[in-house]
Write a structure and sequence with these properties.
60s Ribosomal Protein L30, Chain: A; 4 strands; 16% strand; alpha+beta; signal; flat; Pilus_biogenesis_CpaD-related; single chain; Pilus assembly protein CpaD; 237 residues
Length: 237
């Protein structure tokens, strides 16, 4: 004869309590945002990168016979900016509509010479023209592509309730100021996209440095007496 044991009232009550606790634990409210579990504070305050075009217009004066010194200086500064953070070709556009066509051609030639003197190779320069249908005298235009760093939008510290200690979560502002400072300091935001190729390593120089390190010798370049970092005594008296 088989006997079927019925659960006691205590066991039934315990089972009901465990089920209720399990449901409560799965539906319990949490102060931890989903983003808190994804990446780091710096990942959540990423620096944006936008492409922009830098322009320089050089007016072609009807009565001038050559490019002015001020315009030459402006071209030189623009070329230096291209060398510093420009990407792609340095575009030089000749105005097809000009009150002084001879000076317009001379201005482009002058810009090419200035660019070459500043280390820009001729193959990095792209020539074009503009203003075919213009009814006015057009300027010579220099242009290149660059990138701009966009800092994250940091919330005001005044909006944060620092007295709230209900959780141990990081504040929404954590890491934002670091990213904003970096966006302001980075020389070429294009580097954030990994667009600049790395220079080739110098295995011979690396071998020399490693050998000096093994011998316990200084690895820095030696200085001559004329290159000494000693402060001059000329003004010490």
């Amino acid at each position: 004869m088989t006997r079927i044991l019925k659960p006691t009232a205590t066991l039934i009550a315990a089972g009901i309590c465990l089920t209720a606790l399990s449901a409560c634990s799965s539906m319990a409210p949490s102060n931890v945002p989903a983003s808190y579990l994804e990446g780091t504070a710096l990942d959540r305050n990423a620096i944006g990168v936008e492409k922009k075009t830098e322009f320089l217009e050089i007016a072609i004066h009807p009565q001038a016979s050559e490019v002015s010194l001020a315009d030459k200086a402006a071209i030189s500064n623009f070329v230096s900016a291209y060398r510093d953070h420009g990407h792609g070709p340095l575009v030089m556009s000749l105005p097809a509509s000009s009150a002084n066509p001879q000076l317009a051609v001379a201005a482009v030639a002058e810009a090419r010479a200035i660019a070459y003197e500043n280390g820009v190779q001729y193959e990095e320069i792209e020539g074009t023209h503009h203003g075919e249908d213009s009814l006015v005298s057009e300027p010579m235009i220099l242009a290149f592509q660059a990138y701009e760093a966009i800092a994250p939008d940091c919330p005001s510290q005044a909006s944060i309730n620092f007295a709230d200690i209900s959780t141990n979560n990081e504040r929404s502002t954590l890491g934002c100021a670091v990213r904003s400072n970096l966006a302001a300091m980075i020389a070429d935001p294009g580097d954030l996209l990994g667009t600049r190729p790395l220079d080739k390593a110098d295995p011979l120089r690396r071998g020399v440095i490693l050998e000096k390190f093994r011998k316990g010798e200084p690895t820095g370049s030696s200085r001559s007496s004329s290159e000494s970092g000693t402060v001059s005594q000329a003004v010490s008296n």
